[in-house]
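FAQ: What does the model actually see?

It sees only this:
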Amino acid sequence: MKNPREGFNSKKYIRNQTSKIKQMVMKNHDKLYIEFGGKIIQDKHSARVLPGYNEDAKLKILKNICKNSEIIFVVSAKDIKRGRIRGDFRTTYDDESVRIIKELKDRGIEIKNLAVSLLDQKRSIPPVVKNFEKRISRMGIKVFEFFSLKRYPSRDFNFKTLEINPFVRTNKKIVAIISPGGGSGKFGICLNQLYYEMKNGVTPNYLKFETFPVHNLPVDHPINLAYMAASADFYDIVMADKRHKNASSYNRDLENYELLNLLAKIFKKQGVYLRKISSATNMGANMISTGIENDEIIQKESAAEIARRLIRYKFEVREKKEDKKVLERVREILKML
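And it is asked to produce this:
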């Protein structure tokens, strides 16, 4: 018997999301990079705002569609340096990354390549980042260092500067890009890989698998507002996708689409599949709304999540672990309800 307090059908969602992605995977490209937004396992934010959501849903979908794939795990050097904390477990992102990698291995998924993103070209690599890289290397995982690039992600970005960073060689047709959480620089790694693939004569494709924001719900729906509150520390803004009728997207994906479109134009032959992606919304696959069975419950729990974020950031600002701007951002979002 279904729990009356649950507003979300996780089995239905996983089935529909898997089917949608499989339709996109079957295209005749040489290589497919799938960026998995947010947390790959133990996604407690989704479970809170969507009562009934399986917090390991992304992992189940990953296993369903990527049985013969490779994975690149991405961790932001900025997150490690500032001691960013995953609120659910109160662990820093370096410790959290090690924990996730070990847990994925226990669940049958082995990580062979890790990218440390968003390093500063003008400064030496911080000791805390170097120590993290050593921990990862001791686990038998190859570490790649990626530096922040001038003018990225603006439209006047020079794609040749991608050659400052390495190419992660993979052998499988499908490559999944995952991280310990949002804002880790996964798209930058995808862009880097796509550039090198096309330069090497490969015809690749790209797919974004995101849980939030929900594309076919209004920008101001509480579930999308709760996403903004959850990502307040890197200031994501949910907004309309002007290239797609009546769709909600967010600032970073809109920027990323424009970069993807520009990159595809550089390679006339190899960029054929990338050029077919017509908007930020269409570069992704989001079937969350098909699992919503009681929108009233979802709206109520989403509002409660924003309130929880407000309380959390009040505490973290008082403890000098977070910037006051993040707290003010959540206060602004709360007023949008």
